[in-house]
Amino acid sequence: MSAIWKSLRLTFSVAASALLLAQPGHAEQPIKIGAVLSVTGPASFLGEPQKRTIEMLTQQVNAGGGIGGRKIELVVYDDGGDANAARTFASRLIDEDKVVAMVGGSTTGTTMAMLPAFEEAEIPFMSMAGALQVVQPVRKWVFKTPQTDTMACEKIFEDIKARGFSSIAVVFGTDGFGRSMRDQCVSVAPKYNIRIVHEESFGPKDSDMTPQLTNVRGKKDVQAIVVPGIGQTPAILARNYRQLGMTLPLYVSHGVASREFIDLSAGGAEGARLPVPALLVGSSLASSDPQRAPVLAYTQAYEKAANQPVSAFGGFMHDGFQMVVEAIRRSGSSEPARIRDALEATKGFVGVNGIYSMTARDHMGLDLTGFRMVEIKNGNWSPIVAGN
After folding, report:
1. Domains of the chain, each with CATH number or no CATH
2. pTM beyond 0.70
């Protein structure tokens, strides 16, 4: 097939999709997209930038004429980080608001609470949650944008192994994400010849992790500490770590990849390492890196609109919302089933969190290349050079 014919076919496909979306009876109807986010409460550092991002992107799409001439009507609810509230709002989006797609679920707990409702209603659900259990086993109507907790463990273990360490302590959160990442780290540790020689845990409302860290410090065979956790508590742990004068290498999860974590740690996170998306190291990306352009564009737009630094969590929303919009465009339909099929057919979508290629067996579509290891230096993200 000639290049000219391929170009003509693509042009026809795009035009046909636009005509379908703008056909009589539909042209004036908005396309309703829902979001349930943890804008307030203990997970607000996740939900607040996600809400700002989806509102900003909706305005951009609508200012550009919408999708096939139809505007997006965004319906957002704040679950406050409460799974029961999230479940209630999910039902409202389905039964009352009649959304055709859902982009949200800031945490693993709220996401898992909402999944059954969207599956039963057969409405595509793009989650912002990190745990592997969101997409494994594969659920027909459920997708996600963040790398899994398994991938975070693997990226961390690669770095630990490269530094010549082999025995670690795991101090994990007892929330849904913390427990899931702990389990995944235990599962993949043998692959990297890493032994977990001690474990401690902390609750989401704990205000002092000194006892847990004191126990870790008493174990002579611990060479590094890995903290699977999310929310404010890992920042408190980092503060306590510094107060105790501990020098063991400290690793935290991608679940705290925001400026708020660094600030709340009051210097305790200095020297900690973690896997982050390209978004957080945009200025360090090579000019040839395909993610550089979308990362810099989103960073500039978000920081101008929100007057605050970008976070990985807003980036999860950026990619999820954009993929839903593109799925609607490609399918030429606002029917949930058509949107779902188009999402599953996503190939080579270059986002700020990674490059996505979905399949019927993979509703995330990312690999480890989406992660960049960084060390917190002078209160900022510093990319780690291989071998250091």
Report:
1. 11-147+291-365 (3.40.50.2300), 149-282+371-383 (3.40.50.2300)
2. yes
